[in-house]
Amino acid sequence: MGRPCPRHALVCTCYGESMAELVRRLQILLDDERHARLEREAKRTGAPVAALVRHAIDRVYPPDQSDRQAAVHRLLAASPMPVEDWAVMKQQMRDELSDPAS
Questions:
Q1: What is the pLDDT of residues 7-62, one digit of tens each?
Q2: What pLDDT is attached to residue 10?
């Protein structure tokens, strides 16, 4: 899946693939109305139509989420964990994230 792109952060996804990684060509036929919608969005966002199509595919048919779902199930099934004062815990997490040695 792509990552947020500063240029199109609110509307599309930039794909980290180089042209060499995009190896499958797909030809589709669209009616005028669908094509016009894609063209308008491409013009509005500055994103290529092909990137909009890839983004739509990823939204409707996401990559396999089984690993992520399994992690969620393990987390939900875990025993309750003692939690310190939220302010203290939040600061500890910030400290860990900002520590370059971590």
A1: 444 344 454 556 668 888 999 999 999 999 999 999 999 999 999 999 999 899 88
A2: 39
DSSP H stretches of helix in the chain: 32-45, 49-60, 66-77, 86-98
Using CA of residue 40, residue 44, residue 16, residue 66, what is the dihedral sign? Answer: negative
* Residue ranges covered by each domain of the chain: 1-63
- Say what the pTM is: 0.49
Cβ-contact 39, 33 below 8 angstroms: no
Helix (H) or strand (E) holding 27: none
3-state SS assignment for residue 60:
helix
Nearest to 27 by CA among 45, 53, 48, 61: 53
Q: List, in order, residues 6 or more apart from 53 with CB less than 8 Å away.
A: 38
How far apart (Å, rounded) are the C-alpha atoms in residues 26 and 61?
16
Using an 8 Å Cβ cutoff, are 18 and 28 in contact? Answer: no
